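Dear support,

I submitted the protein below through the web form. The confirmation email said the job was done, but the results page showed an empty box. After a refresh the structure appeared. I'm attaching both so you can tell me whether what I see now is the final result or a partial one.
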Amino acid sequence: MSLPNLMTLSRIPFLFLITGCLLLPSPGPILALVFFIIAALTDWADGWLARRSGQVSDFGKLMDALADKILMVGMLVVLLAVNLLPTWSLFLVLLIITREFWVTGLRLVAAARGVVLAAEKMGKYKTVFQIISIGLLILAKSVAVDFGGSTESGFGWLCLWAGLVIFFVAALLTAVSGAVYLWKYRALMGVGESKGENDDA
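What the results page shows now:
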């Protein structure tokens, strides 16, 4: 297996490593943040390395998108479990999960027809917002646990609320990008005509 694909698949074990660190006392949360940043960087590094080394493959394109979804959705569930996301955000998390499974299902249908659906630009933007949001929420916990701060005031509070606001924006982008994606490739669901099924965006 190529190095870019190994980097892609590494995001899955990173999810469990980050979760374990978040459940530990100090310095668990700060380690979780470091591991999350590393995992997020592989999302950029694997594609860059694959293109630079001429190792771009259909498997890599499909698994890159799938590994992203596993990491992001998994982290949102974890943040709910450790109370870094409030109860009301459950509906937004479910919206994100629904979108990701729906688009993944569409990718599988396309793959069965020999078509690889590349990521849309808006989808990439929502991933960036999700990464920033999750990073800020983990940082808020680290401030409280590792540095004796609080999520009710000061820098910890600022990180928490900035993370929540960006999470809301990420959820909105997730819904819009999913709708755009499904409309563009609606022919795969037997609805109307779709053009540019092989276009990369």
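Response: this is the final, complete result; the empty box was a page-load delay. The radius of gyration is 18 Å.
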